[in-house]
Amino acid sequence: MPTGGGGLVRxxxxxxxxxxxxxxxxxxxxxxxxxxxxxxTMSMVLRExxxxxxxxxxxxxxxxxxxxxxxxxxxxxxxxxDRLARALPPDVRVPDxxxxxxxxxxxxxxxxxxxxxxxxDRQWAADPLRRKDTVTWPRALDxxxxxxxxxxxxxxxxxxxxxxxxxxATTIRELQRLGWTRDASGVLAASVSADAFCHSMVRxxxxxxxxxxxxxxxxxxxxxxxxTDTRASSVTVAPAHGLTLTQVDYPPDDQLAARAELTxxxxxxxxxxxxxxxxxxxxxx
Length: 285
Description:
Layout: E1 3-5, E2 8-17, H1 34-46, E3 53-54, E4 63-73, H2 80-87, E5 92-99, E6 112-120, E7 135-136, H3 143-151, E8 155-158, E9 172-182, E10 187-194, H4 201-214, H5 221-224, E11 243-249, H6 256-267
Parallel strand pairs: 4-11, 6-7
Antiparallel strand pairs: 1-2, 2-4, 2-5, 3-4, 6-10, 6-11, 8-9, 9-10
Helix pairs in contact: 3-4
């Protein structure tokens, strides 16, 4: 059985939540957060202190179907997943929890995060059952223009223009995927993947592309902002509730330690370790 140190066992949790009524992932005084609810509930069920390390923190209103975290505990009793589900509120679930290698780190071992942003620009077609994870947009959007602009943003760049800067933190990221598709019901979905994201990056990229889709900005405008080293005030951050974290990718078990070491070297020269409450790689919001 893999251990996380001190005789404890490391477990990986796959987590889903509706972010509507949460003030984001990270614990905050007097606020309801995903981390706070999960840690408190797990601690109550296990009767030991549980602390989670997460792949990336989501902000208020952002959802997840593929969030990942890990914890080190003495062990899990039989039927723990069912017991946890009964104790948790209905807007957060842990579909899977299993032992993980000691080298597994939900934050540092990750090689890629995936998100989807949903927007419907045909108000008559907006599905009332999807109103909490789909933004209804009041103006028509041209997805071909948005895709043309998105292609120009791919690759490794300094995305300072699209990020809320944190003191000392890098804004250099590798944007691996950014593209829009429209389904049969008329809903547009942006699929976004990168090695990591800085604070508000995805929602800022989406906001810039929506301006292009409306025809208010030229196709070349978002990529042109990559030449700046400060946040662009002309970029409107898209609403939080359209964004969902869908997946986090990890390397094979025998590469976990090497990946974690590499990521630490890249990301932590000026960033404190992340737990449920500390700062670290953000999921965009």
